[in-house]
């Protein structure tokens, strides 16, 4: 018996020496877990963890002068995992190959301890990444997913306090912009990354990974924050124990059934614009599903494009629906008066395919005017497209000429918007036609967005049609009465604002005064205008 015990200890020592410490710890945890499943009495005796009240039990009264300390992961978000946000940086800021490499590393990351896992994810995600690309992702992509994953009660506690301080082990560049702009944090302490020139090296700076409890003590000294929010992990228990009041953030309160999901109307700041291609939170399983779908999605996208370009309207619509495209149409073609001019269809703008789906649904050819269109989109468009110049008089003459030739489609917002908001309508269209038909259009996607502010515009239709079941809802409203047009004595601005409100009510959207310029300043840091080779200003995208 003694000999057997000696052999077991020797084997245990050799295993420790051969394997990395993290792998060994993971194996020990798995072995212990299996052993405790068979010995429930031992399992209960081994459990030890400090108990802190649930965040749902935190009172909100008289907190105006309180100081709050928390981490965004586990403290403010409903999920503790930071993998999806690294994947967003890898995919949107890097490339699909970088994202695939991060996905392949999941089995290895699973057995690494916390510090090694974080260092490995930082290296894969940031090695060779441009600082500019990370800034774009931090400004235009990550806030949407952070807002959608905010814990409602944790946010209410946060909003009731006077001062807010964040301490996190993840790179500061991933969270600081969101925390300061949307949640008004006073200071964010996070892991600093090493850079060379305009690129990240993928290594942590000399200061190393931030240890939250040490960073809190260094920042506050002997003073304790009033409230600490954290997860049920041992790392966070050590962190929040340094606060006067400590609360654990969980998905819901099992006793009252209170939901932790953050409704859109309680967002600290309206989410009108965001960028990036991914329409889902890329957890490991969801990301794996996306990569498995990609070959099928690419084939479907080109099949749907071929059908839409080369086949008659009715056959194209039938085959499109058969391939998974969800097209729902309400209303019918408007009656025509004796005027020679064509009908002006005024549409909300969701993707570049808006005029195409409207033309296919009506079963008649239409001409679409656009402020910008990639050369590829022009080539594959099954309907006639004409570019505008953003010079009011010249664009007015162009649209008058096109209306004299037939029906015309215009999107007066001037750019696309993904969220349930309508941007300010340009009033130019109201001056040109008396036969105006508003068209409410909306889209839904589950995997990829078919619009971008900073990516390749030529791929917008491809990405939209790559979705398993892309959806287009089209509602053709009644023709505008003559007394509500410029011919009836209304100003062009009054007509444009009336149609905007009418379409917003139909879709359940909210009207805004935001413009295309506002969108590009928020998402890309520019006005969406570049100089061409002849020195003329041109739009860079919709």
TrEMBL record:
Residues 343-444 form the Phospholipid/glycerol acyltransferase domain. One of its GO terms (molecular function) is glycerol-3-phosphate 2-O-acyltransferase activity. Residues 1-20 form the signal peptide. The chain crosses the membrane at residues 85-112, 285-307. Its main location: membrane. Belongs to the GPAT/DAPAT family. This is Glycerol-3-phosphate acyltransferase 1 isoform X1. It comes from Populus alba x Populus x berolinensis.
